[in-house]
Amino acid sequence: MARKPRPGDGKVLPRYRWWQVFSRSLFHLNRSGPDGAVEVWSVDVRHGGDADGEVWARLYRDGRNEARSKLPAAFPLADGVLQVAASAYGMKRCRFVAQDGSTRTLTPDPASAEGLRARLDRTHPALSRSIGAASVAILVVALVLGAPQIAEDITRIPIVADRVGTFVSPIQLPFWANISLLLATIAASSERALRLRYSWILDGGAFDGDV
Q1: Which CATH number characterizes residue 21's domain?
Q2: Which of 6, 64, 162, 197 is the most buried (most CB within 10 A)?
Q3: Domain total for the chain?
Q4: Would residue 151 count as lying in a domain?
């Protein structure tokens, strides 16, 4: 459920720094204001969270902070709403949904990790498609190999075992293989997050409440 936005403090949008590539997402949307002039709306997300430990999305208009909200966020505009959500791996979505139901994904800042991934897609589309296909393949393999083992671990919990019995996974991977699979899964889901691709089945939504 989207959180209610709070008023912004009017501060200037900080410049994106290269060392923030793994901790900050920044997106922009150009649209016409009431007087017909082009306005630049920006959404800034710091994945490490603030001092309170919460991850906030901050909305800027022409470089000035208009509002902020904990995630998932829904910022109402004159003719629609800006929707922002993140997962453990990065961004799930950052889009403008118009009143007529049409959607428009915001453009990532060129200096951000999402912007660099978008540039790869433009300059080397074949390589980009191959990387995307590899990410999906890794997650499918991880689901097939990992789900039975997770089910076995869950049914070993006494209260669960008493109700449904104990399940024995037909797949038993060595420790090093499970660790390698976990690392590959994190990398694949992180790559998909750079393209705002998200599936609750493949990217862990069943465990973060996105169903």
Answers
A1: 2.40.128
A2: 197
A3: 2
A4: yes
**Which amino acid, residue 137?**
A
Question: How do strand 38-46 and strand 56-61 relate by DSSP bridges?
Answer: antiparallel
**In this structure, what token pair is assigned to residue 199?**
């599936």
Encoded tokens for 148: 């039975």
Under a CB-based contact definition with an 8 Å cutoff, are residues 192 and 78 in contact? no
128: left (phi over 0), alpha (psi -120 to 50) or beta: alpha
pLDDT digits (tens, 9 = 90+) for 101-150: 999 999 999 999 999 999 999 999 999 999 999 999 999 999 998 888 88
User: Which structural domain range is residue 189 located in?
Assistant: 124-208
Number of DSSP helices (H) and strands (E) in the chain, helices first: 5, 10
Closest among 80, 68, 79 to 5, alpha carbons compared = 68
- 140 and 67 in a common domain: no
